[in-house]
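haha ok so turns out i had the wrong file open the whole time. this is the CORRECT one, sorry everyone. sequence first:
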Amino acid sequence: MSVAPASVSLPALDPLAPAVPGLPETVDAVAVARLYGEPLFQMPLDLYIPPDALELFLEAFQGPLDLLIYLIRRQNFNILDIPLADVTRQYLSYVDQLRKHNLELASEYLLMAAMLIEIKSRMLLPPKKTDDGSEPEDPRAELVRRLLEYEQIKLAAARLGALPVAGRDFQLAQVHTEPSLLPRFPDVDANDLRDAWADILRRAKLNQHHKITREQLSVREHMSIVLRRLQGERFLEFQQLFDVSRGQPVLVVTFIAMLELARERLLEITQAEAFAPIYVRLAYKPS
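then structure:
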């Protein structure tokens, strides 16, 4: 709590003021002061002191929660276990002093005072059991939650306020350059960018390539396959010796293998009549 210095509505008294014409000079030796050039031989007893000359200023708070935090922290109370009787008594004392000077501002504080009185009255009454049989919530829980949240926000605001501010703690450097020295790049339209990308895609399609691998096929190996296929069979139709699922290169090699076997007289290829089915059989009897 701080007290502002008293102010008195009294004109300036200057003992060194110039003498008023027509008055003897010898009175300066016994005069207390001069008021508008006239000598005063004693202090006046009917001075007018305005009602607000002596004004009392309390701590400046941002609101009821700020005042409660101040009262709790000043007396080192545990915020989770607030002694509501002491805090409420000090709070109401502050509100009474506030109402004498600013009734409109005191309305917000009176609402918090009513809440404190309500919480205190609920603590004096026997606690009501809940429906599920659990312990009832402490009447101070909601107030404690609001106080903790307010204190966190206040500390965060203080940390933000302590950060350097341009114009207060430092000045922004300004560099002036000649506009003619800066390169001027033309603006690119979105349609031009889209057309450029489409042209790249068209060029990419013109440069496609395929990797071709050569399969190693052996005529001798397929000759052995045909012979093993015919063993144990009297004869087979010509189409049964070809595996169409393996592709055209395998079919060609298989056909060449059959011709080679026929040339070496290891296979017999027969047909009963024109347009009749073609049959293949071994030209020898396997042992």
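The radius of gyration is 56 Å.
again sry for the mixup
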